[in-house]
Amino acid sequence: MAPDATTRTRTESDSLGSLEIPADAYWGIHTARALENFPVSKRPISVYRDLVRALAMVKQASARANRDIGVLDPMKADLIDRAAQLVIDGEYHDQFIVGVIQGGAGTSTNMNANEVITNIALELAGRQKGDYAFLSPIDDTNRSQSTNDVYPTAVKVGLSLDLKTLLDELDLLRHAFLAKAREFHDILKVGRTQLQDAVPMTLGQEFHGFATTLGEDYNRLTENAYLLYEINMGATAIGTGITASPGYSTSVLSHLRAITGLDLELATDLVESTSDTGAFMSFSASLKRNAIKLSKICNDLRLLSSGPQAGFGEINLPPRQAGSSIMPGKVNPVIPEVVNQVAFAVAGADLTVTMAVEAGQLQLNAFEPVIAHSIFQSITWMRRGMHTLRVNCIDGITANRERLGAMVGTSVGVVTALTPFIGYAAAAALAKTALLTGHNIADLVVEAGLMSREEVTKQLSPARLSGLEATTAAIPLVMPAENLVSETAD
């Protein structure tokens, strides 16, 4: 991002030479080189707000720790602290411009943070941006640190912060399904296994099952989040702690726990922790689990709402937009469809994370940027997908009560509820007759003299059919099973 001829600039230098930096930019030469080197994703790290906030939290905690152990002038530490807080509060995020995909194991991201926070601090001190003789991005803001402990720690903190918003949305979606479960609690329908008619259930039970599976995912995501709480601050380059003063690790951990509100802990083996990225793989897998199960729910919603005339037609999804440029009146299940596609993307991102974790070599994994991008994107898309599913679909679902009732009445699956009373053979014969004639199962049972109308009605009540109320003892057979088909089919 070279400045044009009309842009005011400042000159910054590094070991490779000098570059002109826009005078109003808070980033510096290391960020500028990254912009030239990594024009790949065209997506800056600022798209992940919690990653930027986490970077600032790490820098703030480090400044406080360095002050406490006496390796950073208190005035400089205070300036860095105040500048970092502004970023934590949401300011200057537009200055975090390096691409999410980058070489260097996250060094460009770390330097972008160092430069922005330093230049904010310089302004707070009444100094010009780029006055690094007064306050240095590397010697001061990056004191006692390396990209190799800052970046993975910031990613873990950022993911932990981001996960909270995902869990909030997941819980709202779970409650939306529970609300529909209560609304549909008394509506009988035909259950299906292998897409074939099975025994009856209530529509409420079906929606309650959706809510339960989302609740299980909430628990699994919460459990796996703790894998992200082990950090390696103080490890510096490879885990040996070179350039970090004694006491830094303990102090920075204490400050970072206070700043983030997370129950962070220092890895017992900093060398292992610096090279190992298994926690990211486990966490990504739990996101994939949630996404795939959510996609399965969306598949069910699309099936249950298929039609409206030639499909299942059991429920109605809210019409959101015209579904065809050629077929008038067609409305498609676009909200579940978009969530399906989010799930496909999350599954692909999980494979990316897996491959990147495997590709790490010796004391460092150079591919953490694509790991971070993949997981942050998955969380972001899942959160947005859950929101649109809840607001634009689940909340507005209605049931086709008459159609559901008619299907239950003619379904041979209801005879299963009567097998304790009339026996399997008789029930099978009646089921065959019902399929041949299209007659109502209850009517066939009564006509065959196997049960009274009152008893049939009782056993085929919604409470009995759905398993919410226990059945009574068996009723003796009054007619041999072999006589049922010939007599009831007439």
Report on the structure:
Residues 415-465 form the Fumarase C C-terminal domain. Pfam families: FumaraseC_C, Lyase_1. Residues 18-348 form the Fumarate lyase N-terminal domain. Helices cover 56% and strands 7% of the residues. The protein is mainly alpha-helical. The strands form 4 sheets. It has a two-stranded antiparallel sheet. Strands 3-4 form a two-stranded antiparallel ribbon. A two-stranded parallel ribbon has the order 5-6. Strand 5 (230-231), helix 8 and strand 6 form a beta-alpha-beta unit. Helix 11 packs antiparallel against helix 12 (368-392).
Report the structural category: mainly alpha
Largest sheet: 2 strands, antiparallel
Shape: elongated
Please identify, by name, the CATH architecture of the largest domain: Up-down Bundle
Would you tell me the overall average pLDDT?
90
> Which fold name is given in CATH as the topology of the largest domain?
Fumarase C, Chain A, domain 2
Pfam family, one: Lyase_1
Domain Fumarate lyase N-terminal: 18-348
Organism: Microbacterium invictum
Keywords: Lyase
Can you give me a brief rundown of this structure?
By secondary structure, this protein is mainly alpha-helical. It is built from 19 helices and eight strands.
